[in-house]
Amino acid sequence: MTLKRMTFLQHLLAFLGLEGRLHLEWISSAEAQKFVATVTGFTETIRRLGPSPLRTASLARSENVLTAPMRRSGCPGLSQTVVPEDGTKIVNG
Amino acid sequence: MDLKFVPSICSYCGTGCGVLFEVLDGELVGTLPMKTHPVNQGKLCIKGWNLHEHINSPLRLKHPLLKTFGRFTKVDWGKAVDVTAHRLKEVIAAHGPDSVGVLVSAKMTNEENYLAQKFARAVIGTNNVDHCARL
Amino acid sequence: MTPIQQQVKNWLEEKRVDIFLAYRILDGHPLPHAFTREHIEETAELVTGPARYSLEKFATHIASRYPAARIGMVARDCNQRALNVLRVWNQLKDGQVETVPVTCCPSHLHHHADCSYLEPHPAGAVKQQLGQAPNQSLAEVEAQPAAERLDRWLYEFQKCIKCYGCRNICPVCFCKECSLEHAELIGTGHLPPDIPIFHLVRAVHMAGRCVDCGLCEDACPAEIPLRLLYRKVNAIVKDLFDYETGSGDTLPPFSILGDKPTMSPMPLLAAAQE
Fold it and tell me: Is C58 near chain B, with CB under 8 Å?
């Protein structure tokens, strides 16, 4: 049952654009090696994926959710903060 | 087994969304948006969706209550009207009609709301009358 | 009298059904109406559309109060699917509801239709730029890059005014206690609700239940493309478990344990593993 629901949820999250952030594995208390390998592997996966986009967006009242899609599509009239590689801050009108 | 569908207008605000009440055996059991209504086109807000809930709510007042010495006691309508009129007169005599405000409710009928504002303006003599649906 | 009106009249007179759910034009609006033997003359006013209300939900309300009642109703394909689901979930008894099939929503295969309210509108300029257009195919959504797809979904979800309309109108939502009202599961007292948790909880609960009738999307004041989301839910259930929701008499895969596991956990994301 858990397997069915988790697999379903993994597919649904992938559809929303959150692929690979949910993992299910059966590990017995005698399988220390497997535990280490799984946790290390999953930590590595998450690290590669970077911080969750929901972290910045989950607080729906914050401006991020409203403006993120507009920024992506280059919606005019929105101020954008761009941080170039040398660290100086430029604010575009 | 008596199931009826009664079209009506949501009373909560001035928008005027069309609602459809589901009445089973004379008891209001549900509210639905009216699909073909030109105002809301099959949509409702959370207040409209729950229009039917206060009708059969056990929290409703069924008798006038009078607060004496910090406690509510049940009184009949004659007594309630007498006390209210007497106290209102005292307050108006002491502080003027603008010291009274009338608050009316979206859960009453349109006619009752009309009477309440008439009472505020013509009887008490104040424009302090307001309604929760003043959007 | 049209053939359907005559048929309903006969059914009521023969006591084949005690109550018949269909529509009647009242003040110019097609509204649901319960036809009974006591007012048999009203069957002359019976129409089958064009609006679509979840008649099957009214049937469950009657059935919960009168378990022996025999209920008749006009049914489009989506009504029929919902009735199947409700029977599987024990909200209606076998053979309790008799249906008169009527014409259905328009689709690619089905040009003549009585009900055109549930076809998704083409998206406007803002929605096309920022949100998910409701008339897309699943493949079109999946073709978007993951980050953009998430952005677009979050834009749609944050419009939610938490009216619970999608749940209230849903013909297969019948639980007395709803997870969406659990203060411990979903934060209360702020708008928009916790996103995407609020919408995902509902989507997960729609697995094996959603009959793709489109009423939720139609009732949504914020125009969130819920039908698109639940269509994916149905597609996953179909792909993983080969279960066609609303088609048969078997319980959905999430309600039965099965004899032995038929699947294994998904591996870690391949792209990130290299």
Answer: yes
Return the residue matching tokens 């979903």: C186
* Model confidence pLDDT, tens digit, residues C34-90: 999 898 888 888 888 778 889 999 999 999 999 999 999 998 888 888 999 999 888
Q: How far apart are CA B58 and CA B54, in angstroms?
A: 8
* B1/C58 touch (CB, cutoff 8 Å), yes or no: no
How far apart are the CA of B63 and the nearest CA of chain C, in angstroms? Answer: 31
Distance, in Å, from the CA atom of C132 to the CA atom of C156, rounded to the nearest integer, reads 7
CATH architecture of B3-54: Single Sheet (2.20)
State whether residue A33 sits within 8 Å of chain C by CB: no
Predicted ipTM? Answer: 0.83
| Residue B129: strand pairing partners | B102
Does residue C192 have a cis peptide bond before it, meaning omega lies within 30 degrees of 0? yes
Domain ranges (residues) in chain A = 2-92
- Chain-centroid distance, C-alpha A91: 26
Find all residues with CB under 8 Å of C43, minimum gap 6, and list them: C1, C5, C8, C9, C12, C20, C35
N-terminal to C-terminal alpha carbon distance within chain C: 72
